[in-house]
């Protein structure tokens, strides 16, 4: 039975230290071959167990089988040369050495479908699977083939749709596309960003979500946030178009960020995953703090459409911090559930 206010994590969870070096993005694997496959599955089961113990209702793989939320998907595609690297500015924020698109991009085989089947076998809870969104994918590459951000985004949207259909067939209940780039490239979002996202979800019968945030709690992002002033109104740019789109859920950052909560009015009618956990701080929220954020959100989101969530993925955090934050999320949602029942 679907309960009211089902909590979920927005994205990644930290990996065990025997699988990959902790508190690091793009952390290399510590094992290889069959040992690595088995270790990833073990880590996935632990991530699932942490979520269940915390009262998380919509569970995920915690991204235990991927090194990075964008790069790992792209690594599985043809047309991208990971040896040929160029330095580009990611989301207008920091320079990174990225792979080059050298030819037509295509997906020869499923990327995450086996992992999703494995997760499906482990639980009867609703499962959510994250994929990168088209716009965020192109922002993490140097393109020497299409030479058009829009063209490349459409190609990725077609590939994502192939993967999404197979994830749906594997029993995934919610497919989420991560589009932090939607908070940066406003003209592109409105000209073709939302349209490519709709291409990625074309024909799906499962629920679909888009996660838009201010990024992981890494220095490049926290430095950028300092430049955004006292009121973060970035969501204002994409929300009207998303409200009219066929995406079912919108995942946004809330707790400890300077996003005015009334911006949620712009997506009235959508289910909203409200970030009630700050991923840029080691301080563990209390259940009451989580409840307070959710209570405020209820002014703008109907209770049956409110999905308590984290602001973003928690991969860079120490594992015990992330686990405690998940527990606070579950307990905070519980407080509001009891209030609504009373
Ligand atoms: Zn995020």
UniProtKB/TrEMBL annotation:
<keyword id="KW-0808">Transferase</keyword>
<protein>
    <submittedName>
        <fullName>5-methyltetrahydropteroyltriglutamate--homocysteine methyltransferase</fullName>
        <ecNumber>2.1.1.14</ecNumber>
    </submittedName>
</protein>
<keyword id="KW-0479">Metal-binding</keyword>
<dbReference type="InterPro" id="IPR016456">
    <property type="entry name" value="Met_Synthase_cat"/>
</dbReference>
<dbReference type="GO" id="GO:0032259">
    <property type="term" value="P:methylation"/>
</dbReference>
<dbReference type="GO" id="GO:0008270">
    <property type="term" value="F:zinc ion binding"/>
</dbReference>
<dbReference type="GO" id="GO:0003871">
    <property type="term" value="F:5-methyltetrahydropteroyltriglutamate-homocysteine S-methyltransferase activity"/>
</dbReference>
<dbReference type="InterPro" id="IPR038071">
    <property type="entry name" value="UROD/MetE-like_sf"/>
</dbReference>
<feature type="domain" description="Cobalamin-independent methionine synthase MetE C-terminal/archaeal">
    <location>
        <begin position="11"/>
        <end position="329"/>
    </location>
</feature>
<keyword id="KW-0489">Methyltransferase</keyword>
<keyword id="KW-0862">Zinc</keyword>
<dbReference type="InterPro" id="IPR002629">
    <property type="entry name" value="Met_Synth_C/arc"/>
</dbReference>
<dbReference type="Pfam" id="PF01717">
    <property type="entry name" value="Meth_synt_2"/>
</dbReference>
<dbReference type="GO" id="GO:0009086">
    <property type="term" value="P:methionine biosynthetic process"/>
</dbReference>
């Amino acid at each position: 039975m679907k309960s009211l206010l089902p909590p979920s994590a927005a994205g990644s969870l930290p990996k065990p230290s025997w699988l990959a070096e902790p508190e690091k993005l793009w952390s290399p694997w510590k094992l290889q071959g069959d040992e690595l496959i088995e270790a990833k599955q073990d880590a996935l089961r632990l991530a699932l167990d942490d979520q269940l113990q915390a009262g998380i209702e919509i569970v995920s793989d915690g991204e235990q089988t991927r090194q990075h939320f964008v790069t790992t998907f792209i690594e599985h595609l043809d047309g991208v040369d990971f040896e040929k690297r160029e330095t580009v500015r990611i989301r207008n924020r920091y320079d990174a050495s990225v792979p080059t698109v050298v030819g037509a991009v295509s997906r020869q085989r499923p990327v995450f479908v086996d992992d999703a089947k494995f997760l499906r076998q482990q639980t009867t809870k609703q499962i959510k699977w994250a994929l990168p969104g088209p716009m965020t994918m192109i922002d993490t590459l140097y393109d020497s083939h299409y030479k058009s951000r829009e063209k490349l985004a459409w190609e990725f949207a077609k590939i994502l749709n192939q993967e999404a259909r197979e994830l749906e067939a594997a029993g995934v209940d919610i497919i989420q596309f991560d589009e932090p780039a939607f908070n940066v490239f406003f003209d592109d979002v409105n000209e073709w960003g939302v349209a490519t996202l709709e291409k990625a979800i074309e024909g799906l019968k499962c629920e679909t979500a888009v996660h838009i945030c201010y990024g992981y709690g890494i220095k490049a992002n926290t430095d950028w946030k300092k430049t955004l002033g006292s009121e973060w109104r970035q969501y204002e740019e994409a929300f009207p178009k998303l409200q009219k789109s066929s995406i079912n859920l919108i995942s946004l950052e809330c707790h400890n960020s300077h996003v005015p909560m009334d911006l949620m009015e712009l997506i009235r009618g959508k289910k909203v995953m409200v970030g009630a956990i700050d991923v840029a701080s080691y301080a563990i929220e209390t259940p009451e703090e989580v409840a307070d954020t959710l209570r405020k959100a209820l002014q703008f989101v109907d209770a049956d459409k409110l999905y308590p969530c984290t602001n973003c993925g928690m991969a860079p955090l120490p594992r015990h911090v992330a686990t405690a934050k998940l527990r606070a999320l579950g307990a905070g949602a519980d407080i509001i559930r009891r209030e609504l029942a009373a």
